[in-house]
Amino acid sequence: MDFSLDDEQTALRDAVRGLLKGFDNEQRRAATSEDPGFSQEQWGRLAEMGLLGLPYSEDDGGMGAGPVELAVVAEELGRVNAPEPYVDTVVLAGGLVAALGTAEQKSEVLGAISSGEKVVAAALLEPGSRWDLAGEGVVEKDGRLTGVKEPVVAGGRADLLVVSATTDGGPALFLVTPGEGVETSSYATFDGGRAARVTLDGAPATRLGDGSVDTLAALERVVAAAKITYCHEALGLMESALRLTTDYLTTRKQFGMTLNRFQALTFRAADMYTSLELSRSIVTWATMVLADHGSTPQQVSDAARRAKLQVSKAGRHVGQEAIQLHGGIGMTAEYAVGHMTSRLTAIDHLLGDGREQTKHLLATLTDHEVVEPVG
Amino acid sequence: MQLALTEEETAFREEMRTFFTTKIPQELRDTIASGRHVGKEGIVTAQRIMNEAGYAVPNWPVEWGGQDWTPMQRHIWHEEMQLASVPPPLAFNASMIGPVIAHFGSEEMKAKFLPATANLDIWWCQGFSEPNAGSDLASLTTKAVRDGDDWVINGQKTWTTLGQHADWIFCLCRTDPEVKKQAGISMILIPMDTEGVTLRPIELIDGGFEVNEVFFEDVRVPGENLVGEENQGWTMAKFLLGNERVGVAPVAQTKRRLATLKQVAADRGLLDDVLLSAKIVELENELLALELTALRVVAHSADGKPHPASSVLKLKGTELQQAVTELFVDVAGPLALASGADKDSDVPDWARVTAPDYLNYRKASIYGGSNEIQRQIIAGTILGL
């Protein structure tokens, strides 16, 4: 068992860190203050470095990298709380195309994501669907989709949508280009991003793939990969929130001394560290499970749920305490730490919160005597 | 990154699993599995079987019975031992004084003590804490004074675990009161049957007797009983506590207890209670995170330095250990009250031990550096606060 990055992965981490160097809360606020809620220039730089095509095969215009490389990038993006919809586009929407698409679809769509030419959004949620992503409320008839998808992350900016819908033959995924039969209304989300209501009214749609791949199985696996990558983004966020907090405790003075003289505060910071490190262990493990070719779909799905459950709890703990230990300044938009808590809250509720993961894990409780990290 | 164990590690795990489940008497393992104590005889029996196979003191130097294992092998050894409910080698011998003597002692001292310590022919106990030196251990006042070649010791130790079984005590004594408190401490070995040594048991809240007070009144031992050099005791204490921390997250033991809890809850139809099953799911997940943290620490401790995350292990490990004992009482419900019932009782054995076990394990977050000390270490050493 080896938890460390190899030389190439370390070089990738350093390169991404270098690329994002200097990206601060002021720039973040500027980028998120207007549509599309992120910096197109930064998106372009991610494309130039090959990061937008990281997981796709080289034939499809990608880099052919694995989950560990994605984890490295997501963690660095989280560390500076970059608002770019990386996981949403590259891992989730693009991941669905990679898993289900025909050779032609993959080449076209993944190539366009990789080059930064197109932002692709996954339109899976519906107002009444809660965590169900299979698309019960959108119906396909004669190659056209009707129904409402909301909230769709980056839906307003998207050049292409991957939409889940119900067909006569069961659930399926479709590619939809905003235009005819598609009405999009975008709004800001509490974490600085953008989401949209996408109303489909007989929108022309191309079925993703040729039906040879099981849609729900592919969806489950891609969603698991996206969950794990979100968890890495959360690790970066928690690490930064903790560092900002400890910096603050060692510099802010009250009662004539710096705050780190108060044990009531330093102990709480120690508990934040504990939450972070336990999360790091389980999230890194989930990435290894995902990357291991011997893992079954069930193992991958469970590992993602376990990571997400831990991060749900840790994200709340670290986010809440980071604000509290800062005091009033932590509440302000001018200061970075509150935005990190906002983003952690959003990640918690994307693709299922801790309670939802627990619910699924409950169903498997008696399948095992003990949980073993290695088969 | 690599998920799987290597082929060698997998084979090693199999070897350990086979050894622990076939060579250690089933009766002992059943007793441990049910949350009962095996007593002195059981501990001695298990340690001697392990010692004969070379598995009692793998962390010692090879020439004194240790094994040239990787950190991962040591981890597997420890995990498999706990999973098989084997009474572990006596910590005072295997993890504490043994490594100290092997590292700091003279050749004569090593030859005299190490083989007997490994084989549990000598039962050691620990003379560290005092009534006024708990978390602030360095302020200890038990005094050792030179008299000719001898040491004469006066003072009092407390929380001496299983001192009632002990043949010898390794004692931190103040040998120089004039210098900074850490600089005037020495480690001295004292036979428990020396004149002037008095042991008084302390009854604990579960009704058990596992800790003691030890009084020293003009206790005289030969000068050769000093370990290493005079006033080097604090270095040894830190060395020893560093070793202690390696085994301080009883992951596999807690996993095993939680598995038993799940089984008895299932047998009684209690898993339909979503509040209870959700709690079990959460504990399983936290234990997984802890185990993986332990594996991270192991994987990155090859250079001998402890990984920064290792202080998390004691803190979280004992919290989870306690959480499982707490949940066990909940599963037992009113049956927990029957702690004093005898064999005629209809209350099953597992339920009878739950409340004493819960009360007993409140100790876990206090000993080995209380969890507040661990938070202090994390805040100070890791976070720079």
Can you tell me about this structure?
- The complex is a heterodimer of chains A (about 375) and B (about 375).
- Chain A has about 375 residues and is α+β, with helices and mostly antiparallel strands.
- Chain A is built from eleven helices and ten strands.
- In chain A, helix 5 (about 85-100) packs antiparallel against helix 7 and helix 7 runs parallel beside helix 9 (about 295-325).
- Chain B has about 375 residues and is of the alpha+beta class.
- In chain B, the strands form two sheets. Chain B has a four-stranded antiparallel beta sheet, with no helix packed on it. In chain B, strands 1-4-5 form a three-stranded mixed beta sheet.
- In chain B, helix 9 (about 275-300) runs antiparallel to helix 10 (about 310-330) and helix 10 (about 310-330) runs antiparallel to helix 13.
- The longest helix of chain B is centred in the C-terminal third of the chain and has 26 residues, at about 275-300.
- Chain B is globular and about 70 Å long.
- Chains A and B meet through helix 7, helix 8, helix 9 and helix 11 of A and helix 8, helix 9, helix 10 and helix 13 of B.
